[in-house]
Design brief:
This protein is an alpha/beta fold. It contains ten helices and eleven strands. The chain has one domain: Alpha/Beta hydrolase fold, catalytic domain (Rossmann fold, 3-Layer(aba) Sandwich). Strands 2, 3, 4, 5, 6, 7, 8, 9 and 11 form a nine-stranded mixed beta sheet that branches.
């Protein structure tokens, strides 16, 4: 692409689009005055489940862990890994737990990963932790009652970026990192991206995005190849999993999402976009939008991961 065209395109983007990760709203963001009122959600392990903590990897800066909702009943369940948001710099596992508790009740083992933040380790550490978490789930599949052949991932905001990147790099060994459980696969069979930009080059080219600079160790002009590598849209290829997008009507447009969907469609890979009416950026953290998100996610993951086998 000629530089003058890129300059015009990116300048227009910088004037018309707000970047996903620049400043994440508080989890309990309100909708417009004439929209529905949000209801703050707090975690509460549902009856019939045990919340387990599994260590994935220990680093000097942070111990990567999984919080896993395991059914008490005997059987084998499909699994969903959640990758939390927070601009890559805030740990928001607790804010995502209510959504994953509800999904567990729909027939899944659900897990949340506490990956290394940008204040602890730069990209690609967070991606490597997500990959290691998936391998860890498979390594502990029997204990956690997981069918290792039926695992998907989802995430919102920065977690949506990481969810999309995790899914699109399925099967690419150069993205695995040096984490543990190397005898296991990090593949996912289905992916949900919520409220996340998928083209980090175009969305950050002339933006002073402090969250991205902290995460990548520089801006997009200084590190164009890193931003390109970290953009999920650049890894769409035959064999990547079905991927859908959930977005809030009151949120900003997510750069690269529409183009990524076109790439997926051209390859015959299932994709769709769901826009939640009146929903703000962190819609999955509060009702009524958490309930709507769970309905969409449960239907999608049941289609691609299947039902539990209860004994």
């Amino acid at each position: 692409m000629p530089m003058h065209f890129r300059f015009s395109l990116c300048l227009a983007l910088s004037l018309t689009l707000s970047v996903l990760h620049a400043a994440e709203p508080k989890p309990a963001a309100k909708a417009s005055a004439n929209g529905p009122k949000w209801k703050k959600l707090t975690p509460q392990t549902p009856a019939g489940f045990t919340l387990k903590t599994i260590e994935v990897a220990k680093y000097p800066e942070h111990t990567v862990e999984l919080s896993v909702y395991v059914p008490d009943a005997a059987g084998t369940w499909p699994c969903i890994l959640d990758i939390h948001g927070g601009g890559w710099k805030a740990r928001q596992v607790e804010a995502d737990k209510p959504m994953m508790e509800r999904l567990a009740q729909r027939g899944f083992v659900t897990a949340l990963v506490s990956y290394r933040l940008s204040t602890e380790a730069k990209y690609p550490a967070a991606l490597h932790d997500c990959k290691a978490a998936l391998r860890c789930l498979r390594a502990h599949a029997q204990e956690l009652k997981i069918d290792p052949e039926r695992i998907g991932c989802m995430g919102g905001s920065a977690g949506g970026h990481l969810s999309g990147l995790t899914a699109m790099t399925t099967g690419l060994p150069e993205f695995e990192g040096e984490g543990p459980f190397k005898d296991q696969s990090s593949a996912v069979k289905a992916c949900i991206v919520m409220a996340a930009t998928q083209n980090l080059v175009d969305s950050n080219y002339f933006q002073k995005n402090e969250s991205a600079i902290l995460f990548f160790g520089g801006n997009a002009l200084e590190k164009p190849e890193v931003y390109k590598e970290a953009s999920p849209i650049n890894h769409v290829r035959a064999g990547v999993p079905p991927t859908i997008y959930i977005e809030g009507e009151k949120d900003s447009l997510k750069v690269g999402r529409a183009e990524m969907m076109e790439k997926l469609k051209a390859l015959g890979i299932e994709t769709a976009a769901h826009t939640l009416k009146d929903a703000p950026h962190p819609f999955w953290m509060s009702d009524p939008w958490c309930a709507e998100t769970v309905d969409i996610a449960a239907a999608f993951f049941k289609k691609h991961l299947g039902e539990p086998v209860v004994k």
